[in-house]
Amino acid sequence: MEDFIYYNGKKYRKGYTTGTCAAAAAKACAQMILTQEEVSLVQVETTGGQILEIPVAKQKFSKTKATAAVQKDGGDDIDATHGMWIFVDVELTEENKIHLDGGIGIGRATQKGISVAVGEAAINPAPRKNIIATMRDSLGETRGANIVIYAPEGEERAKRTMNSNLGIVGGISILGTTGIVTPMSDEGWKKSLSIELEMKRTQGMEQIILVPGNYGDDFVQNTLGFSNNQVVSMSNFVGYMLKETQRLAFKRVLMVGHFGKLVKVSAGIFTTYSKDADARAEILVANLALLGAPISLLEEVEKCNTTEAAGELIEAAGYSHVYDVIVQKIKARSERFLKFTKPSVEIDVVTFSTERGLLASTKDIEVLREEWQ
């Protein structure tokens, strides 16, 4: 496909999802069985209504069975499934029902709370509906079929996805809200984070720990000693995930993260990509100045490229209490961010340094341990 978007002045090619791959391979199988001729290109309608021409390979067919594969093309968005082969087996049946399942390399749901029932193949509702509709359109109303989607590389590729966090084991998910992969888009990423939150809420959880990434997760488990069952990544989408916790009616949120990431929130920066907002040094300088720090310290901190480097200067000068001030500001800013919508959410914050460990928390750590065990 030749469809593009522009981002930061650069041109990026769009791609298509695993769901679109599966729909195209399934259609090719149906056509090969019906025509008894090899099909190498099919035209499919995506879940979002766009018509695409998709190349098909690895074809086999007989009177009632066929196999075809489509290579996932993520365009210029190189995700975990880009370049892998999505296979589909189709077998015609005497009944007019269409059955869809996943085979090797397609994950299965093991926990409640996502859009796939426990035990089912991880084929999300939108692509599932699209694949079945594509097959029905190809076969007509009187024929039926058994469809199996599989991906030989799926189990290995899934290690680079969030599937394990969602209780999906054994492989990748068949995804695609629109059927099109839009490069540089954060929407799919946000949605996957929301799904994990929704799963936790469905399981009855009323409090959740949000971390920016692996460092936060590791600190929660290995330093604080909390179960990682309560942990969900918020990545750089602090504001979005706080709003999601409110939408899902969580009562309490504990944010645990490296100081270099969370310090931005104290100044009202709720999307923490460094490329979009990097005011770490300025925030530190302003708060140190309010505590009466000498100009010489402020000038040295302002020159630091990292909060770890600044932390050495701050500790040596005896101003480590600045972290207590900032962590309270993170809490206040976050609660103010949510205060105009109900229900209310109680927020606490823990921040740390990779070099110096725990820096500050809005409550005594032992109190938090009692509340979050």
Explain the layout of strands and helices.
Elements: E1 4-7, E2 10-13, E3 15-16, H1 18-35, E4 41-45, E5 51-55, E6 57-61, E7 65-71, E8 85-93, E9 98-102, E10 105-106, E11 108-109, H2 125-139, E12 144-150, H3 154-157, E13 168-169, E14 171-172, E15 180-181, H4 187-202, E16 207-211, H5 214-224, E17 231-233, H6 238-247, E18 252-258, H7 259-262, H8 280-290, H9 295-303, H10 307-316, H11 322-338, E19 346-353, E20 357-361, H12 365-372
Parallel strand pairs: 9-12, 10-14, 16-17, 16-18, 18-19
Antiparallel strand pairs: 1-2, 3-15, 4-5, 6-7, 7-8, 8-12, 11-13, 19-20
Helix pairs in contact: 1-2, 4-6, 8-9, 9-10
Describe this structure in words.
- By secondary structure, the protein is of the alpha/beta class.
- Helices cover 36% and strands 24% of the residues.
- Strand 19 and strand 20 (357-361) form a beta hairpin.
- The model has no long low-confidence stretch (mean pLDDT 90).
- The chain contains twelve helices and 20 strands.
- The protein has helices spanning 18-35, 125-139, 154-157, 187-202, 214-224, 238-247, 259-262, 280-290, 295-303, 307-316, 322-338, 365-372; strands at residues 4-7, 10-13, 15-16, 41-45, 51-55, 57-61, 65-71, 85-93, 98-102, 105-106, 108-109, 144-150, 168-169, 171-172, 180-181, 207-211, 231-233, 252-258, 346-353, 357-361.
- It catalyses: Co-precorrin-5B + S-adenosyl-L-methionine = Co-precorrin-6A + S-adenosyl-L-homocysteine.
- Pathway: Cofactor biosynthesis; adenosylcobalamin biosynthesis; cob(II)yrinate a,c-diamide from sirohydrochlorin (anaerobic route): step 6/10.
- Belongs to the CbiD family.
